[in-house]
Every structure is written in C-alpha cells, then in structure tokens.
Design a protein that fits this description.
Length: about 625
Amino acid sequence: MLQQLRVASKSWVASVIIGILVLAFALWGVADIFRGGADNVVADVGSTSITDTEFDLQLKTELRQISAQTRTELTMEQAKAIGLDKTVLDTVISRTALDEQAKKLGLIASQQTVETQIKTADAFRGADGAFDFARFAQALRDSNMTEQMFVAATGKDIARAQLLDALTDGVAAPPGLARLLYDFVSEERVAEYLIVTPEEAGQVPEPTQAELEAFHKAHGTQFSSPEYRALDYVQIVPDQVSGEIQVSDADLKAEFDANKATYEKAEQREIEQLAFPSKDAADTAAMKIKTAADFAAVAKERGLKDQDVKLGTLAANGLDPKLSAAVFALPEGGVTSPVQGPFGWVILHAAKVISGETKTFEDVKDLLKTNLTKSRAAAKLTEIANKFEDGRGSGDSLAEAAMKEGLMVHHVAATDRQGMTPERSESEVAKIPLLLERAFQTETGEESDLFQSEDGLYFALKMDGVTPPAVRPLESVREEVREAFVAEKRNQLLAAKVKTLADEATKTKSLAAAGKSLGRAPLTSQPLKRNEMSEVFSAQLLNQLFGNPSGVAVTAPAASGKGVVIAQVNKVLHPEPDLSSAAYVNFRRSAAQQLGLTTVDTVAAAAKKQAGVTIHQDTLQRVLGDNQQ
C-alpha cells in the first residue's frame, strides 16, 4: 500500500491545491524557508535534535489556530506576550523526550500498523468512505510534508501512544479522593451582600485649573493622539479582472465531463449485521428471522446492543462483494439469508435505503460557471501579481510597476492601528486588517514585498511617513480631563468607603451596620457555585468568597460594572452526591482523566531530565525574529 501511496504522490493529484489543513499531522511538517549556513537546531533532546523548521511550523500552526478561533490576526509580538512561543517549545521538547523513552523501550510501530492507521484515518476518506489517494496527496502538500516524513511521523505518534496508554490505562480516582474533589467542586456558599454605587461615595468638588493641569500632565498618555501612518498601496483583486474572464458553454461542458463523478452520488444503505461462529448457527437464527422485528429480537436474545449490530451507512463498493450483492438486493427493511463474508457467516438487515443521486449538466451549470470564473480570475490575479513583482525586481518603484500593469495606487493620508483617521472616521484601509498590520511593521520610505491575504487578494505598500503619538493640549481635551479627574476622585472615595464598611463587617461578622449606614438591609444570595457568575457576582468576587472563611467581608466590582459589592459568606453547603448516578460516575471518570494527564506530565518532565535538554538560544531567537518579518 505504501508503494501505491508513492505512486499516487507523484501523479497529477499531488498538485491539486485544496483549502484544508490536516492539523494533527501538520505539526510534524517543515517550514517554507530553508535557512542555509547557520545552526538550524533549536534544541537537543538526548540524541534527537529539534530543527528550526519543525519549531517554526508548529509555532505558525498554533498562531493560525488561535487567530482563527479569535477571528483576530495574532502577531508574533502578541504571541510572545502570552508566552505562546515558550508553550510551543516546551510541547515539542516534551514530545521528543517521550519519543526518546519509547525508543529506549523498544516501542515501534510496524509498517502494517502505520499503513492501517493512514488507510483508516477519517481525514483521508472519500465520499464513499474508502481511503482516497487524492485526499492523502493533497493533505501532504498542504502540510508541506513528503510521504516519507508523514509515515515516519505517524510511526512516532503510534509508538508514543503505546507508551502513554501503558502509563494511563486503568488509572482511576480512589473513592476517597474522588469524594474530596467532588466536595470541593460542588461546594456551594450563601452570602449576604450590599452594592455600593459611586454616587454613594460622596461629592467630588469641582477641580481647579491647577488640578486639571496637574492631572493632564500626569496622565499624558491617556490624552494623547495615537500614532498615525501615511501610506500608498496597490491592491490586486478579482474586480480588476472579472470583466476579462470569459467562460463558454463548451468550457462548462468540458469541466462537467472531467468531474462527472463528483455529481454522482451512489445509493447507500444503513446496514445492521449479526455475526455467527458457524453456518449451522447462522441457519438456526435465520429460521427465526423473517422481519426487521425478528432481527432485533434475535439481537436482543444474544445480548447485543444497537451499536453492536450497526455496520454503518455504506455504498455498495464499501462492502465485501458477497455481502454487498446480498444486502443491496433487498428492499428497505429486508433481511438476507446467511451469507459467508470475509470474517465468517452473517445475516444482514437493510435498515434504511438512501437513494443515489445524479445531477445533470443543467443542474450544475450555474455553479460550474461561478467556480470556473473564480478559478480563472485567481489565475489571472496570480499572473498580474507575478508581472508586478517582476517589474519591481527589475528596479521599478511600486508606482511604476503599478502603472505598467494598469493598477491604481491608493493614498492614505493618515490612519491609526484601528484604521481610524484623525477626524475619527474610518480610513479606506479599516477593513483590510492585514494591510494595516503590515503598514505598522514597515519603516518610513520602505516598500513592502507583495503579500497575499487569506481570501487570495494581493497587496503591496509604501510607507510615506509616521506621525508619532502626541499629548493633546489641555484646552482641546478639557472636558475629557475633567471627567477623568472626577471619576478617579470618586473611585478613590468609593474605595475608602467600601474598605471602612468591609473592615467593620469583618469585625462584627455582620453586614447589618454597613446596611444601616447605606439605608438598606443586606440582600441574601441564592447558593453560589465557584464558576457561576451573575450580574452581581464576578469571577473575582467568587474567588474571594470561596477562598476565605465565613464571616470575612470581601469586596470586588460588580460583574455588571455598576458599583462595588461587599459580600460575606454565612453558610457553606456540600450537596450529598448520589454515588450511583451517571453524573457522579462521569465525575470520577473526569477525575481519572486528570490524574492520567498529571501522570503524563510527570513522566514527560522525568523524560526531559533523563534525556538532557539543550536549547540553542541564538537559533531560537532567529526563528522568532524571522516570524516577525
């Protein structure tokens, strides 16, 4: 099979580009930049070196994943600020250390095991549920991997899984520990509370001119204009070439004929199966089974559950030919006679028939035209982009290269990082986040290389000038300064008042006196749980309530942002669990999983210590620096 994969990987399908990334395996790929002449090792773990390309690709993959989840283009500086670079490096080192241990223990994956894993991976299944060579080749291309690299990575994954399964298999949370954890997680607390509003803190005198001037000077950054940048940019987008794209009916018919199989969906059936050790056993059962109800009754007699008999929803070519011929000859609900399959005698039930579908040329003509137009437009964009870059490569400026290709140079007089102008309106680049990001990474007078957005558009820019942040004169922001001054003073009064009331409540173990001074009685909460926030109880307040003994008054801003809450626990509850309930069983299972993860972390730490880890700081910093470019 691996030889077939090699053949397929060299065929035309290997050049097909699709928009999917097989994340689970992409982490093992190589980066798209080869750095010759320098140390290319980020870290040594025992006898194994982690290359800059391996680390670079995993870091970029994590960046893409987080950016997709947050719908924000995460920069390398932001990633480093949250420690993503350190987390990724530690992950790669831990994985490599575990691989070293697996190697020492002689854990290896046979070629047949690797082949089976690849062949049965969901990511490589075609529409008929079988292994699809085209999908496999495309996945290799998208993850920048060769077949040999992929096979080697899969073998390591399997061997490492054998090691970790041996460590965690059978791990269970002891009953006593499970109950302690349950009591901690399910603990509830009832609290009395008061909300003190800023208005109740007292009046703030109108600030004097001297106070405003001092406040304005001390908080200059708060009243500064942002950094603005002026730039010229060129864009190459489909609208610029759509009028040039012509698609004839003959083109559409040729496209349809070339991909006809795509528009044909084979008939499928939901199939159930009863397996028997011998023909005699199957014949005996067949005498009882005449209907679907009989089939279910025999399955029940044999102690089989629904999932035990379900074979799946399959097309005719997804089954052994003998089994397929028998079950696809039945009407919906029909049951076969005993059939000898590749693994013994079986009786099959056609639980549901899902009709096939064949779409005609007319059915898909409009879709074909849309897709073919997009494809040709993308090719045209690439052609223009290449000519544009060729011109710049021969010495043309951005403006000169744009003129030769009939492209417009757009000018942005001033924009901040959010795409806003000094007049607080949106600039024309406000909706092009990648262009904004590159604009604030380019030095004055420099021209960027042509770069491409995720939706296939091309851009290049020239940075014309930078207007640094500047403190705006007091007279232009007087009202803003006044409001900020009053708000700060009021918050100071509020904090002092709340502290006085909370200290008194802690001493008396009661909020009664605080309520009396505010003219209202304290409120009593419903039983609170650790992670159940509300408009009143923020995460910060809940952490304090569950982290302090009863009677201690704690304070935190209300979750709604309206005032500060003073709260005091007066009752602690530990709900009695039903030890036989599904909820408690699931809790113990989760506790066992956490213990298993802790075990893996502990073993990984020991493996790193035993193997010895050397980090090449110069190479690491170079990779991180490259990513900022």
